[in-house]
Design goal:
The protein is an alpha+beta fold. 29% of the residues lie in helices and 27% in strands. It starts with a helix and ends with a strand. Mean pLDDT is 85; it is low at 1-26.
């Protein structure tokens, strides 16, 4: 296996670059993870959004916090874009330089599937890009600010 890496590297990369790329899976590896607040366990704190963290070294901690604090569904990778209205890219600078987005969904279909009146599971859920933008610019929600993002 190492021979393949070395032979591929001979064509245009440094040994240090090859070594860093090879060991990246072991030391200092980053991941993308998500916390989907639309789907929670009993007693959880739901919301009409999924939060994703990109290029983090703390993916396991992020997922643990999501399950512990919100009883929400977690997973590897980014949030699904199916049903997304728009998102907010958080401007907070994380220690590991990871980036965080909250993707807001049209959740009316989930409420219909559950057989309840619209707004009873997700009161005040956004339904338009303008609604999401209002959340992005709300300093109570995003202390360091956030900018509107399209899926």
């Amino acid at each position: 296996m190492m021979m393949v890496g070395v032979s591929a590297c001979v064509v245009g990369c440094s040994a240090a670059g090859w070594l860093g790329g090879t060991l990246g899976g072991v030391v200092g590896a980053t991941s993308n993870d998500h916390c989907d607040r639309r789907f929670i366990a009993d007693g959880g704190n739901n919301g009409p959004f999924c939060q994703e963290i990109v290029d983090t070294v703390a993916g396991g901690q992020f997922q643990d916090d999501c399950r512990t604090k919100f009883q929400a569904q977690t997973g590897d990778g980014r949030c699904t874009r199916t049903g997304v209205i728009a998102g907010c890219k958080n401007k907070k600078v994380n220690d590991d330089k990871s980036e965080v987005w909250d993707w807001y969904y049209d959740v009316r279909g989930l409420e219909i599937e559950a057989g309840v009146e619209a707004g009873s599971i997700f009161p005040n859920a956004p339904t338009t890009v303008a609604d999401v933008n209002a959340l992005c610019i709300d300093p109570k929600r995003y202390e360091d600010g956030a900018e509107l993002a399209n899926p």
